[in-house]
Each structure stands twice: as C-alpha cells, then as structure tokens.
Amino acid sequence: MNLLTSVTEIKQQIIEQFEKHADELYNGTGNRINRFRKQALDDFNRLGIPTAKNENYRYTPVDRFLQGSYDLDLKANPFRIEPEDVFKCNIPELDTDVLLFLNGFYYGSGRPLNVPDGVVICSLNEASERHPDIFQAHYSKYASTSEDGLVAMNTLFARDGIFIYLPDDAVLRRPLQIINLSHSFNNLRITRRNLVVAGKNTAASLVICDHTLCEQSYHINSLTEIVLDDHSHIDYTRIQNENNLSAQINNVFVNQQSGSLFNSHIITLHAGLSRNNFYVNLMAPFCESNLYGLFLCDRKQHVANYTLMNHDSPDCLSNQLFKGILDDEATGTFNGKIHVRKDAQKTRAYQRNNNILLSSASKMNSKPHLEIYADDVKCSHGATTGQLDNEALFYARTRGISEKEARHLLMYAFANEIVSEISVDILRERIIEMIDKRLRGELSRCNNCDIHCTS
Fold it and tell me: Is 390 part of a structural domain of the chain?
C-alpha cells in the first residue's frame, strides 16, 4: 500500500465514522460546540492526515500510527469511578486537586475542590451551557481548523474535556492534577478538548498525567486552548506515560496578553507516537513564555515536538529548550520556529534543541529556525545531536564508577537541566525519580495500575 492510498483511506475511514455517529455527537453535545463541526468536516476533508509533504510533519509518519480499525466511545460509563480504585498516581505525595478523565470524559474530582470563589472547573460540555458568554468568547477561537487536519479532526469529534475559568485576581494555592486514563478492550479513538481561561492577575498550576490501562491501540487527539489575560501566570506540566501501541497528538494553543507568564514542561516517558504541537502568541508587551521538553524513547517509539512562537508585540521574552535521549530504533524530531513581527522591537527569543543517541539505529531530525522582521532584537537558535561524552565517561571510570553507572549519571545530568526548571518542589522531585527509573529501564507504563490486564 503506497502512502497516498494509506492517508486517503485513513481520511475516508474517519469521515465515514463521523457520518455514522453524527446524530449521537450532535445530540449529546451543546450547540456552542456543535456549530463548529460543519466547518471542521469541510477542512478535514480538504486537509486530511498530514504527510511528509507538509513541512511541519516532514519527519513524523502520522499515517503509520493511525492505520487500522478504531472504535469510538461516545458515552461516559454509567458507573462512577474513584481514581484510587484502579490507579495509583506516580506522584502520590503531591498536594493537588485531582480531576479524572476516562476515555476523554470528565468524571469530576470525587471530593470538594479547594478553589477560590468564582473559579469554575467543570466539563467542557457543561460549560458550554452554563457559562455561554465565556465559552463563546474563547472556544475554537485560537485553534483554527483551516491549517492542520488533526486540529480539524479534534473539532469534528470534540465531545468533552475540562473547562477552567479563573476570574480576575483568583489564585489557586494547590495545583490542579488532571489524570487522563485510556481503557478499552478494543482499539479506541479518543478525543480530548480543553479550554483554560485565566483572568487578570491570576495564577494556577496544571499537572496533566496521561496513562493507558490496557495493551490496546489508542489514537488520542488532544487539544487545549489557554488564554492568559494581563499579568496572569499559568504553569503547565504534562507527563506522557502511555503504552507503545498508543499514538497521541497533543495540540496546545496559547494566547497571552500584557505581562502574562506561561511556563510549560512536557515529559515524555512512554508512547508509540507522541506529537506535541505548541502555538504561542505573545499579543501584548512584557509577555514571557518558556517551553521546556524532555523525551526518553527506545524500541521503535517516535517523539516529535513542534513549536511556533509568535512575537506580535514589543518587549517580550521567550525561551525554548527541548532535549531527547534516544535508544534502539527510536526516532525523534524537533521543528521549532520563532516568528518576530516588524513592530515587535526589543524582542528576546532563544531556542535550543540537544539530543543524545545511544545506538547507531536511533535517529533525530532537528530544525530550529528564525523568521525576524524587526531590527532591534536579541534572538538565537541552535541544535546538537551526538553521543555521550567519552572524556566524561573516562573521567567517571577513573573514579571507580562502573561504565553502566557512569553512562546513567551522564544521561541523568543531561535530563536534569529540563526538570530543574519545574517550580513545584515535590513534583520536580517525583519526576526526577521517574526519569531515573526510566533511564534504568525500571519504569513500566503499567506500574501504577491495579487492573493487571493481560490483553
């Protein structure tokens, strides 16, 4: 089967699946979500699945991971689930407000949330009906369906997700921990759609944990729109720990206003395909945005990180630092772009991608680039891909450290530059421990599940 036939058949299969379940989608979702489906269908029909002809996906074989037959889960399970009944989080000491999702459906927190008055945390579908003004002002405003078929596909099948609204001056004292669980005994296509709106002078920390509970193939299409008003502050940390049959497309659209701060950390530990796309718009002066990513992959896993940092206004700062460690036949890509508009003077923008290849069969493609139309800026970009430093290995060996432990220490030090930027102390410590176990091959993506499935 050639590539053209493959992506054409995948697109047609998805369209037929939508048409088969269209009534169920429309009847189970509010009009403020449904009204975007027709345009999304037209755009998906035109764009289809991205291929290597699309420069943004040049080194990511999306079609290879999306082939096959997938079911849809369009109804939440009728029984209530307590997270502790089936799942033990890797960061149990973290003092968080926990929000549980199963196959893309919101199941709540199971306990009262410790949040200030006026803060709204509920399912996306519920928010479209109960908070129409806020919802209509922001939903699908930043995630255009006209340029990426996978964004159009998410909007086409959007059913549920999390809605978070912080009124002016609201500060969340504890992180919100969003646990995304995938569980089915059939291959499943899951759509997650989220909207976060932060008013003026607000602050919140979001911790997202992605896990699969069965050895099935899951195609997970996740999209999050994040809006930061003046002087708001959002920390976004995501831990991806899914099985090697899973393919996750994670699109994050960030829109920042004056003096706002957005920090993001993406830690990819396990997945067959993990694709993280970040689109950040710095719309007013004195914004700051920091994107950090770390991925550890082996076997035939593929991890891709794509960033588009739009400096639309003067006096803004952005940093991008992505690191990867690849072993066996794993492959990775980094495609990062800094775009500085003509009026965005005094911009400071920095971008770096560093990678370590542990085997001759592993491969990394890196493309950092700048597009600058202003003349008073400080911008830089760079990329390195290589092996562990032999001199450093030799130095460690002369101090009585075994070769295996010396290699581990060097990889740990390489990864720590990313993790050290996480602001929540206990979260940083637990992620360091998880990375340490992953580097030693001791962390299974199922080690926190009590189901013990064998399929």
Answer: yes
